[in-house]
Write a structure and sequence with these properties.
The complex is a heterodimer of chains A (about 280) and B (about 250). With about 280 residues, chain A is mainly alpha-helical. Chain A has 13 helices and no strands. In chain A, helix 2 packs antiparallel against helix 10, helix 4 packs antiparallel against helix 5 and helix 7 runs antiparallel to helix 10. Chain B is built from eight helices and nine strands. Classes of the chains: A mainly alpha (about 280), B alpha/beta (about 250).
């Protein structure tokens, strides 16, 4: 903790890491609350794992075909959006096969990523670090991309709050009020996909599902309105990523895993605390 | 088609793939009426409402609502479903739920928060159902009967020209039921009100006609609802209970 505080003013990479954590918390708090109330956590997990395919393909094109402009994050965004659209269309057209498709995409995305990384010449250790998070390697260029995506996600998520709330609470009634629920559902999945990409840099592909749901789940235990849940969830995400960074820095632990353990412990304590409080009353 | 008819069914049949739920159904609902849909369980009452809303498509025949296909007219209908599958932990207040009725009022894609007029309309609907004191309570903390009243308020907040309520009084006591029917009776002076009910004896004091549904549909003026009609509808051995509430 003290090492983190003394080094923070000295090293830009620590400042970028802190800033990244704070930036993504806003998107994570808002979209995470939709994901938890609409119960599409499993879809978010599947989208996260297809991201590896996009990262790998983009890096492969960069090194093999010399397409320098193709930053791996572009590949991640493309893969996440594509899998969101596929899952969305399948769940609307063939509800009974939804879970099969979600599970298959999950594994196929990973497999494609591993193949691309294997066939890319040179040293690709940093791509593997996307699996477990690489918040300490965020560059100023990354920060601009993260900030841009963040603003986009938050803007759409907030502007159409009423429609998304109706969709999550009672889809049939939303449809009867003339809301194009198919389009809003697809939009929600795409926003989830972009949020997943943002969180991949912080905690990595494998642990995204926890950071998108745990703060929202904690906030859901303590609030009674969706936007209160979003606000509290945003605060908690900021707290968890900052604490994860600070706690892991001194003893040189992986920041992503530390963040998730902190979030998980807080969730457990809050759930148990709320139950105990209700029993006493 | 008559100019003032709100709903028209012409030779409509419907099935979920197996045996027909509704067969060769034709009737019209006029504006400014109060009527009730009655019939045995699984006789097709809720199906009839879902067809009017365009949530289900008829396998044969045509349905028009305000002279339009149902899915084009649905924002002019206020609907309270019999069951809402909702997450018991969903973080939403009573007022939030009723405000959902304000979506789709007015034209175009709305964004941003609800305006004052929307809030006033939602609070007014809650007041009429005597739930305005609970407007800031979590929806999940309410009893079954209170939730039903909130969902009726949500249907009313849409400023409907046709109000469809599916078993609105299955969870409320007699006093609330009487008040609700007085309110609906007053509303039917300006719009069409359709209530699905299992309690024919009670509703017949208020409604002008009864749509009897049991695979086939017959419309009777309330005065003509006799023991014979009921026996025909439910099969034999049904005893009619009269509630002489209105003295």
């Amino acid at each position: 903790m003290t090492a983190f505080l003394t080094d923070l003013p000295r090293y830009p990479f620590l400042q970028y890491a802190l800033l990244t954590g704070l930036l993504v918390s806003v998107a994570c708090g808002i979209i995470g609350s939709y994901v938890v109330t609409k119960r599409i956590t499993y879809i978010a997990g599947s989208i996260a794992h297809t991201v590896l395919g996009g990262l790998g393909a983009a890096r492969y094109c960069q090194t093999v075909y010399g397409m320098e402009w193709l930053h791996p994050l572009y590949g991640a965004v493309f893969a996440a959006l594509a899998s969101a659209v596929i899952i969305g269309v399948v769940s609307m057209k063939a509800r009974q096969r939804e879970d099969t498709v979600i599970g298959s995409l999950w594994a196929i995305g990973m497999a494609a990523g591993i193949l691309f990384i294997y066939r890319t010449p040179g040293y690709n250790e940093d791509l593997m670090s996307y699996l477990f998070g690489s918040i300490l390697m965020v560059s100023p260029q990354d920060i601009w991309m993260i900030a841009g995506l963040d603003v986009l996600v938050v803007m759409i998520g907030v502007l159409f709050y009423n429609q998304f709330l109706a969709l999550c609470f009672d889809e049939e009634f939303a449809r009867l009020r003339g809301i194009r629920v198919e389009w809003f559902y697809l939009a929600l999945l795409c926003l989830t996909a972009l949020t997943v990409v943002l969180l991949v840099t912080v905690v990595g592909i494998v642990m995204v599902i926890a950071l998108i749901t745990l703060p929202a789940a904690v906030a859901g235990e303590l609030t009674n309105r969706l936007w209160h849940m979003m606000a509290l969830s945003t605060l908690l995400t900021a707290l968890f990523t900052t604490a994860g960074l600070a706690v892991s820095y001194g003893p040189d632990l992986p920041a992503g895993a530390t963040t998730i353990i902190i979030a998980g412990m807080v969730y457990l304590l809050v759930v148990l605390g709320v139950r105990a409080f209700r029993l006493r009353r | 088609m008559a100019e003032n008819s709100v709903v028209t069914f012409q030779n409509v049949s419907f099935s979920y793939g197996g045996a027909p739920i509704l067969e060769d159904v034709s009737f019209t609902i006029q504006e400014r009426t109060f009527l009730s849909i009655v019939g045995p369980n699984a006789g097709g009452k809720s199906t009839l409402l879902k067809l009017m809303l365009g949530l289900l498509k008829p396998s044969r025949g045509t349905i028009e609502v305000f002279g339009l296909p149902p899915e084009k007219a649905r924002t002019r209908i206020g609907y309270m479903p019999q069951y809402v599958q909702f997450d018991p932990d969903f973080p939403v207040s009573v007022l939030d739920v009723v405000l959902m009725g304000r979506l789709g009022v007015g034209k175009g894609l709305r964004f941003g928060p609800y305006g004052r007029a929307d809030r006033d309309m939602a609070l007014e609907a809650l007041r009429r159902l005597e739930m305005d004191n609970a407007c800031h309570r979590p929806f999940s903390a309410l009893s079954g009967g209170q939730r039903q009243r909130v969902l009726i308020a949500r249907a009313m907040a849409t400023e409907p020209e046709l109000l469809l309520l599916d078993e609105p009084t299955s969870n409320v006591d007699m006093a609330v039921e009487t008040e609700l029917f007085e309110l609906l009776h007053a509303m039917s002076k300006s719009i069409a009100v359709v209530v699905v009910s299992h309690d024919l004896g009670f509703v017949s004091q208020y409604v002008e006609s009864v749509i009897c549904v049991n695979r086939r549909v017959k419309v009777h003026p309330t005065t003509a609802v006799t023991g014979e009609v009921i026996a025909d509808l439910y099969g034999s051995d049904v005893r009619m209970v009269r509630h002489n509430l209105k003295g």
